[in-house]
Amino acid sequence: MGGTFKITDASGATDTQCFVTKYTNSGGSDDWFAIGVAEQSWARGPGWELVAFRNGTADSHRRGWYLNIPQGATVLVTFYGFDRDLGLSYA
Hints:
The chain is mainly beta. It is 0% helix and 48% strand.
């Protein structure tokens, strides 16, 4: 049993996109997806994944973090912007 990343955008931008690698779930997608204040979910884990963000169509800013997702856990990720850290909580 893996886990879940639940990702939201609190940066105030309107064109933020996110992707999550699929090292721990080869059946998952590592495409870029538009994110917003509504939560998006990725089934992954257990293990390490890269969670990255870019500013949509301009693609002039990117930032990513390697995050560990424990067995059966839900990791709540909040993106606050390219010049700030992520908000993380584990459930």
